[in-house]
């Protein structure tokens, strides 16, 4: 580049040839005439306080204890290597290494041993076997769900205008407890409980007898019934009723919502209710909307959730470590109850 102006060419033509501003060419030419070289001098300032080895040590300490503060890591570096660093310097090194502070995602206290045992017992299950499984569960659904996937159109800098604010009750507002079941090629009716706690007797009278027993009669003796481990489901009356009706029961491991795919059907149902322009004004309207939207859920979505059981089982067998240590790249997004993973799941459901 320096040789071009010596040939009598203008700074503009040289800059156009090299794709840069002509002021860059001008400064380089002036520097060459003054110093005899166009190479930039090493800038001043304090020398770097850490070496590449120190930087790797800082990043390693942060990965070993992800809840440590930058000040704590700086203290460890001082103790181990005698190097005095400020927390700000440590934070800069971590940022350069690709580590940034963020809130940890939340997950249930999973019983890893029980989960692994359950997955090993069903390691060789085929699609035909999963197709005979009736996945059931209860869930409390609110009239005003706090769904973060409900979007609005608004102008710039009008975030806090009354028309752009969605009121939200602290606990979701009035709600109802519902029960439902899904299979590969079907579903039960959605049952909405009246007020009051669901005891074992109510579970028998309102769920097992009118719904599960009839489903068992329609499907046949190959039906496998899955519910959760709540105390009302484990009383003697429930056990005796299932035995008398010849209903095979499979109990999933404790604290394992991802091993029952119907949990994600509730997310989809909540999203459908939240998408209404006019939310339900009372419990009766909420019940009607839930029953209507339950019937409108696409069967293909339910089918894909049931078919995903094989993939979740394989992921669990490969993982083998507690999901909270964050060291395994095979972490299944369905285990996390953070809003980002839940939103991603709902987007996939909506695309079906």
Automatic annotation (TrEMBL):
Q: Which InterPro entries match?
A: Homeodomain-like_sf, RNaseH_sf, Tc1-like_DDE_dom, Transposase_5, Transposase_Tc1-like
Q: What's one Pfam family the UniProt record gives for this protein?
A: HTH_Tnp_Tc3_2
Q: Where is the Transposase Tc1-like domain?
A: 55-124
- The primary location reported for this protein is nucleus
Q: Which SUPFAM superfamilies match?
A: Homeodomain-like
List this protein's GO terms for biological process.
DNA integration; DNA transposition
Location in the cell reads: Nucleus
Query: Got a GO cellular component term for this one?
Result: nucleus
Tc1-like transposase DDE domain residues are: 163-282
Molecular function terms, GO-annotated: DNA binding
| Record protein name field | Transposable element Tcb2 transposase
